[in-house]
Design a protein that fits this description.
- With about 300 residues, the protein is of the alpha/beta class.
- The chain has a 9-stranded mixed sheet, sandwiched between helices.
- The longest helix has 20 residues.
- It is globular and about 50 Å long.
- The mean pLDDT is about 95.
- The chain binds beta-D-ribofuranose and calcium ion.
- The site of beta-D-ribofuranose (BDR) has 15 residues, from helix 1 and helix 7.
- Its EC number is 3.2.2.1.
- This is Purine nucleosidase.
């Protein structure tokens, strides 16, 4: 079983990523750490607790983390997720509280207590918590397993600006620190996640399952469908955040290219752009991996199985 910590900012697509992990017995889900991103951290932590309750997974602790990016003002993406972060889902106060302690400390403690490289991290929000954890424990980078991140914009262009994808744009300094840390970072940027679309047929298939996990996942996609139609003009919204979890479950669903990734932190215009260098002769060494393709049917099959 793969041990896993999920760092996230739920978020409608984070919610689907969490449901995928909750329903996958191949994963030992050690903790969920919440970060400020789509909505403020008090809400992302509450949403994570709501989702674990809906899924019947109160055995998984939720830790609250960074309220603000390392150096930037908190941004937010409420227009894509609703004011409370989970679309039309009415918020409720979950029964179980957050676990004690900061998310960054929880990441350090959980990873350092386990065998080297045995704990993977799936990141679905800005990289603030992960950067803080790496600052607090210099030995963490060597100890961590793969760090699978939803983030980055290259060939597909951006989604928050013309150049950048939201998670990297929201805290570019944190992303740069994580990429420079020596961790085994795999980035699932828009090149890959824009291939994973919630078509009408795929949403209807989830709705037909009839479990709380499936209904919640489908409701997230219905909300995105409405919003993306309005804002971007797309009928089938991309479902970004399940991708890193899907890769940990079934690596063959994605093609990855070795590369070296740098993040723009100086320019306002291209803030958070990911410059992806595939040429070893130029880069010297290719320490990262960039997802170039995704098998959307395969990802949705996993989501369906986990929600059944
Ligand atoms: C990413 O940004 C957030 O709004 C989504 O939850 C996802 O993590 C997509 O760019
Ligand atoms: Ca997210």
């Amino acid at each position: 079983r793969q041990s896993l910590i999920i760092d996230c900012d739920p978020g409608v697509d984070d919610a689907v990523g969490l449901m995928l992990a909750f329903g996958s017995p191949e994963l030992e889900l050690l903790a969920i750490t919440a970060v400020g991103g789509n909505v403020p951290v008090e809400k992302t932590a509450r949403n994570a607790r709501m989702l674990r309750q809906i899924a019947g997974r109160e055995d998984v602790p939720v830790f609250m983390g960074a309220a603000r990016p390392l150096r930037r003002e908190p941004a937010g993406a409420g227009e894509f997720h609703g004011a409370e972060g989970l679309g039309d889902l009415t918020p409720f106060e979950p029964e179980a509280p957050c676990a004690e302690g900061h998310a960054a400390d929880a990441i350090v403690a959980l990873v350092m207590a386990r065998p080297e490289r045995s704990v993977a991290l799936a990141v679905m929000g800005p990289l603030t918590n992960v950067a803080l954890a790496l600052r607090r424990e210099p030995g963490l980078a060597e100890r961590l397993g793969p760090v699978a991140v939803m983030g980055g914009a290259r060939a597909e262009g951006g989604n928050i600006t013309a150049s950048a994808e939201f998670n990297i744009w929201a805290d570019p300094e944190a992303a740069a620190e994580v990429l420079a840390s020596g961790c085994d970072v795999v980035l699932f940027g828009l090149d890959a996640t824009h291939q994973v679309r919630a078509t009408e047929q795929r949403i209807a298939a989830l709705e037909a399952i009839g479990t709380a996990r499936a209904d919640t996942s489908a409701a997230m996609m219905r909300f995105s469908q409405r919003i993306e139609r309005k804002i971007v003009g797309w009928d089938a919204p991309p479902v970004h955040d399940p991708c890193p979890v899907a890769w940990l479950l079934k690596p063959g669903l994605f093609e990855l290219a070795p590369c070296r990734i740098a993040v723009e932190t100086e320019s306002e215009l291209t803030r958070g752009h990911t410059a992806v260098e595939f040429r070893e002769a130029v880069a010297g060494r290719l320490p990262h991996r960039w997802a170039t393709t995704a098998d959307a049917d395969g990802v949705f099959a996993l989501i369906g199985e986990a929600c059944a």
